[in-house]
Amino acid sequence: MSAGVRLLLVGATGLVGRHVLAQALADPRVATVAAPVRRALPAHPKLQSPQVDFDRLPDDADWWRVDAAICTLGTTIRVAGSQAAFRRVDHDYPLDVARRVHAHGARAFALNSALGADAASRVFYNRVKGELERDLAAVGFASLTYVRPGLIGGDRDAFRLGERSAGVVLGALGPLLPPRWRINPATRIAAALLDAAVAAVPGTHVVGSERLI
To answer: pTM of whole model > 0.85?
Structure first.
């Protein structure tokens, strides 16, 4: 895509999403950013941030009409409260958004997925991520990118003991670990997502964790 990309971002208030938003607003390749959210975002000349209910998204809002979309929506089963609620946030919402932006003309979609995403996995988390990748492939985007980080490095709003503990261990062992198992900084993940959405290279692409160190 040429300069002046109209971008939609969902998940703009999360760890990776915040970095995508900041990078997109500062990027001269991006003309506008639509970031539907549950809570208001600070104003910016390039930003439109309608407050929405992801269970009741509007069918024909003007902000669906973009060139590319990035999805960083995600939660944990503990936060969601159940596997069904987790699946709604990590599968159903992203797929709904993807279908809507595609119907309104978007050619590119970039997903913050996960290392180990596999629709046939016995691990529920990995299976949901894999099912989303599979279902996005059927939507019909000219350019589709799955960014698959491992453990994400950065400061979250919500404390996650398991991730904090794993981060300490992996941080200490980092130089000894294979590249795909090292910590992936949120800034690097965000940059990969933004570059994929803006470039919109035709086809389906996977950015593995080893490329996000």
So the answer is: yes
Distance separating alpha carbons of residues 162 and 148, to the nearest angstrom: 19
CB 86 within 8 A of CB 74: no
In this prediction, residue 28 carries a pLDDT of 97
Compute the distance between CA of residue 145 and CA of residue 93 in angstroms, rounded to an integer: 17
Residues 104-143: pLDDT tens digits? Answer: 999 999 999 999 999 999 999 999 999 999 999 999 999 9
pLDDT in tens, 41-91: 999 999 999 999 999 999 999 999 999 999 999 999 999 999 999 999 999
Provide the sign of the torsion angle of the four alpha carbons 27, 28, 33, 39, taken in this order.
positive
How far apart (Å, rounded) are the C-alpha atoms in residues 59 and 194?
25
Distance CA 177, CA 133 (A): 27
Helix (H) or strand (E) holding 68: strand 68-71
**CATH class of the domain at 5-211:** alpha beta
Of 3, 9, 5, 7, nearest to 111 by C-alpha is: 9
Residues 142-178 as b or e (16 or more Cβ within 10 Å = b): ebbbbbbbbbbbbeeeeeeeebeeebeebeeeeeeee
| Tokens 């900041």 -> residue | 22
